[in-house]
Design brief:
two-stranded antiparallel ribbon, Aminoglycoside phosphotransferase domain-containing protein, Kinase-like_dom_sf
Length: about 130
């Protein structure tokens, strides 16, 4: 569940859009996507802090209804890296391999390395 795929109509009704990667997955994966403040195409230094802030706010309400194990909490930021590479597979599946080039893939790999380093250097318990 990605929050940018939820549309609120003028009537107040909510609509979920974009089912291209719908699947049965771990509930914590939905949390990761819902709290995601990263940009798929560009690495932003402040995205980690924004994501952690969103995650902290989200978990305040969520954990009143369902607890998360330490392992689940620790996996949330790692799952965002998985999400970025899942999007690559989806893009290639839909548009074919000609829609990406070496530079695009190198930029995505750079994003992953920078995200990994940022997560390791700022390790906080959500």
């Amino acid at each position: 569940m990605y929050r940018n795929n939820i549309f609120k109509a003028d009537t107040g009704e909510l609509y979920v859009l974009d089912f291209d990667t719908s699947c049965r997955s771990f509930p914590v994966y939905d949390i990761a996507l819902f709290c995601n403040e990263t940009d798929y195409f560009t690495f932003h230094e402040d995205a980690y802090d924004k994501t952690v802030c969103m995650l902290e706010q989200f978990l305040k309400g969520y954990q009143r209804h369902r607890s998360l194990s330490r392992e689940e909490k620790e996996a949330i930021l790692d799952l965002l890296a998985v999400y970025h590479f899942q999007l690559q597979a989806t893009i290639i599946e839909i548009y074919g391999s000609d829609c990406v080039d070496d530079e695009f893939l190198d930029n995505q790999l750079d994003w992953l390395y920078r995200w990994k380093a940022q997560c390791a250097s700022r390790a906080v318990e959500p």
